[in-house]
Write a structure and sequence with these properties.
Elements lengths: L3 H13 L2 H8 L3 H15 L4 E4 L2 E4 L1 H26 L6 E7 L2 H17 L3 E7 L2 H9 L5 E4 L8 E16 L19 E5 L4 H12 L8 E6 L2 H9 L4 E5 H8 L3 E4 L7 E9 L6 H10 L5 H6 L5 E2 L6 E3 L1
Parallel strand pairs: 3-4, 3-5, 7-8, 7-9
Antiparallel strand pairs: 1-2, 5-11, 6-9, 6-10, 6-11, 6-12, 6-13
């Protein structure tokens, strides 16, 4: 019969591709790691690792075993957590994926409050591109994800969580800084610092600009940056104007940049929270889902002061 501990040793070795490093990470001896790997190879009657020169690599059999082993190890962890929870405690390690700027600021508040209530829970927040966050959720690599997804998989339930306003910002000494509004055509005269194509902020800005007759590809882009925080800093330094999440302005750049209103332009990015219904929820996952979808949660009410609009008073549920 397969041993979940042996499979966990194999998974660690597959990540490090070095038995000594795996042993150190697992607080084991290198010979013990080798013995576990050899036992698995005897069980499957297949080599799982081979050496190519000084480098160790997975065989085809090893590559095939990785996702299966990960699933079994996850099930083993969930069994332990479930049995522990029978004693009335929320227990375990919570893995949350996040792809949006707003999510990066919201999650620490939520996780801190949740873990204060449930001190036996630990958590990891993985910030990745949007597609990766959704794929990780579909593959069971994270328990929950905050994303602005267009791509869904059939096993995932997403609920609209928050709407995050997107704002145009400019340096304090910019000609637009002291005006109540500017007209759409004036945008074509400015130098822009933009997010990369495919990012949520870029797509939201593109749709909003199209509605007021200013195609995003007609803007004069002098600099492209990979996150909204960097855009806010570049705008503060006077390199140009840019579109960022409101929470970036309130948390990082309040008083150091000017927010610009454009006639007819309103933009917001919808952020969703998702879980994979094809996999059994851990005790920590189920408790956190209940926590963040509770409309009376005081943390959500506090965050609303930063301009977020929360959806759980009238939830929009998406299932494919």
């Amino acid at each position: 019969m397969l041993d979940a501990h042996q499979l966990n040793v194999f998974l660690t070795a597959s990540e490090t591709l070095n038995f000594t490093a795996a042993a150190k990470q697992l607080h084991m001896t290198q010979p013990s790691v080798s013995q576990h790997i050899q036992a698995l190879e005897q069980h499957f009657q297949s080599e799982l690792f081979i050496r190519k020169g000084r480098q160790m690599v997975l065989t085809d059999a090893g590559e095939a075993l990785v996702p299966l082993a990960r699933r079994l190890v996850d099930w083993s962890v969930r069994i332990d957590e479930t049995m522990e929870s029978l004693r009335g405690e929320v227990y375990g390690h919570l893995k949350v994926g996040c792809s949006t700027t707003s999510g990066k600021y919201v999650l620490p508040f939520l996780l801190t409050s949740f873990m204060q209530r449930h001190p036996q829970v630990t958590a990891t927040c993985q910030v990745t591109p949007r597609r990766q966050a959704v794929e990780d959720l579909c593959d069971g690599l994270v328990h929950l994800a905050l994303a602005s997804p267009r791509e869904f998989c059939s096993t995932v339930e997403f609920r609209k969580f928050i709407s995050d306003p997107i704002q145009l910002i400019a340096p304090l000494d910019h000609p637009w800084a002291n005006r109540a509004y500017i007209e759409p055509e004036e945008l074509l005269e400015a130098e822009f610092i933009m997010r990369e194509e495919g990012s949520g902020t870029y797509e939201v800005a593109g749709r909003g600009l199209e509605e007021i007759g200013v195609p995003v590809d007609q803007l004069y882009t002098v600099l492209t940056l990979g996150n909204s925080e960097a855009i806010a800093l570049a705008v503060e330094e006077g390199l140009g104007v840019g579109f960022v999440s409101r929470i970036v302005v309130t948390r990082l750049a309040s008083g150091r940049v000017a927010t610009i209103n454009v006639t007819g332009l309103e933009m917001k990015q919808d952020v969703y929270i998702g879980r994979n219904n094809n996999l059994p929820g851990t005790t920590a996952q189920n408790a956190f889902w209940s926590f963040v979808t509770d409309p009376s949660n005081p943390i959500l009410l506090q965050l609303a002061q930063h301009g977020f609009q929360y959806a759980f008073c009238d939830p929009e549920k998406i299932e494919l």
